[in-house]
Structure formats: C-alpha cells, structure tokens
Amino acid sequence: MKKNNWFFLLILTGIFLFLSACQPNIPPQDGLRVIAVENFLADMTQRVAGDRVKVQTLIPINVDPHAFEPTPHDIANISESQVLVINGGGIETWLNPVLNNAGGQRLIIEASKGLKSRSAPEIDPHFWMDPNNSITYIKNIRDGLIKADPAGAAQYQANADDYIQQLKELDRWINEQVKQIPPEKRLLVTNHESLGYFADRYGFKVIGTIIPGFSTDSAPSAQEIARLINQIRATGSKAVFIEVGANQDMARQIASETGVRVVTNLYTESLTDANGPAPSYIEMLKMDVATMVQVLK
Question: 57: which of 42, 209, 223, 243 fits an S-S bond (Cβ 3.0–4.6 Å)?
C-alpha cells in the first residue's frame, strides 16, 4: 500500500475512534430494547419477557426511587430505549423532564394503570406491596410487550400466565404466614407510607409513619413526631420498621422514647443483588413477611 494511502487510512481510523468515544456508553443488545425504571419492575418485566428480551434497570439497587436523580448516562440509555416500563402513580416525579431531554419515540408501559389508589386526593403509588395488584402490573407489561413485539405474543402470554399463578400462590402464602400474628398485634409503624396496600390486604393497621406522606422527600415536624410517639404508646406497637438504606436517626430517637424495637431490614422499593435476601420481587415480599412475623407474633 502506498504511503499516502496508509496516511489516509490512519486518519479515517482516528475519526472512527473519536466518533465512537462520543457515543453514549450503552451495552449492545439485539432485539427489543426494554428499560424498567425500578428494579422490582425490571424483575417483573423480565419474568414476562423470558429469554426473548434482556430487560435493563434504570434505578440501581438501594437507591430511593422518590429521590432518584438521573445522570446523563441514564438519559442516554432512555433515549435508546424502545420500551420504558414505569410504575406510575406519581412515584417517578422526575420522569417528564427526562423524557423531554431524551427525545426519540418509545412505548411507555405504566404498570399500575387501571388500579385505584387507596387514598385521595393524593395517590399512594406503592400498589406493588399487594401481590394482587401486581397481577395487574403483569397484565399491563404483557400487553405492552406484545404491542411492541407482536411476534413474541405467545411467549409473553405464557410467561405472564405462569407468573400470575406464582403471585396468587404468594398471596396464599402470605395469608398463611400472617395467621401467626394475632390480629391485635398486627400494628405497623414505618419510615414513610409504603405499606398501606399490604396492610389493607392482610389485616394490618398502620399506626403511623415517621415521614408523613407517600414520598421520602419531606421531613417530619416536632409536633408530628410527638403525635407518633403518643400513638405508639397508646396502641402498644412493638416496633418501627425502617426500609434498608433509610436514615435511622429519627427511629432511634422514637425508640428511646417509647421502648420499641427498630427493625432495619424492610424491603419495599428496592431489591438486593443476587446474593442478598431479596433478589426478586417475590423474595422481597417473603423477606418482609418473615421479618414482620418474627417481630410481631
């Protein structure tokens, strides 16, 4: 090859490498590109997708979805997606500006679509804490994947049917486990209002929460903490259940005033990694139920 041809080839190679480096760091993926915002949603979506699609997760493990702040890399990932699975119900307050910045076209599957909030006027977005609500999630995910990838309809339908049976079995299992706790002892004090649907389904009563409301982005007043302490004393509640990763300082203060136990291994909005105690949605709920039974029975 002539010297000037080598020089020209080196220039082209340098341009190619430069352009490649400017591209967002997105792992290559064949077929449908699906991203689920929360990791428990990614688990559900993967159960429906099976081996036809590899589902990516946007929010990392142990990151509070209420306080999530997407990075430029996250926005780049969303911009390349064809399907985005969200919980809905107002938990992804940061989503609209991100979608505007990401651009592009994608199918958005709102997993909680069709479910009625247990509260009004504010919506409680924690529908998934009742596995019966998660059956609706699975149906919405199934229908969305079929719309995006009609050729996979039979596989998505079969996988969804199988997983719905697992959710029904989970519901039966939880009911049996909860029977170990006398009804008068099924009292919950939590970090924020995340267990309402669970409590409604399985006969618990939420006595109060440290952070008022359904999000974790607010702080309790002194009056609210005093009121919660009085509620704990009046009802004889045995424990304050804190989500993994949440600040424990206020719970410890309440415990010192009331003598209740602080339980710090509750999982509601994030799974663990594969080696942890809650690597899937079903195992997450089983872990929570086992913890409650152990503490309250």
Answer: 42
